[in-house]
Write a structure and sequence with these properties.
single chain, mainly beta, four-stranded antiparallel sheet
């Protein structure tokens, strides 16, 4: 079993920044891709950003240029830096880790006030 735990969400004013962290732990494993999805009320879950074990990154158009995903393979941890936040970034952000099976965190709330 793999546990995925997110941290770093919160309330921020529009234009502000947040850094989300996500750590995977459990039985010995090799993580392929880690990343973040988000789900706003009444909307489908959407990919925000992902990063492979080799460091290849992928961003949603909605956050491209305003966010940076990074990864510490030694710590099985992925980070998401969100800048120039907008009210439409308000959502629950879910981290995932792909170890052949995909494991999800419980989510962390990000609320951006206007």
């Amino acid at each position: 079993q793999v546990q995925v735990v997110e941290s770093g969400g919160g309330l921020v004013q529009a234009g502000g920044s947040l850094r989300l962290s996500c750590a995977a732990s459990g039985r010995p494993f090799s993580i392929n891709t880690m990343g973040w999805y988000r789900q706003a009320p009444g909307k489908q879950r959407e990919l925000v950003a992902s990063i492979t074990g080799g460091g290849r990154k992928n961003y949603a158009d909605s956050v491209k240029g305003r966010s940076t995903i990074s990864r510490d393979n030694a710590k099985n941890t992925v980070y998401l830096q969100l800048n120039s936040l907008k009210p439409e970034d308000t959502a629950v952000y879910y981290c995932y880790a792909d170890v052949g099976l995909t494991y999800w965190g419980q989510g962390t709330q990000v609320t951006v006030s206007s």
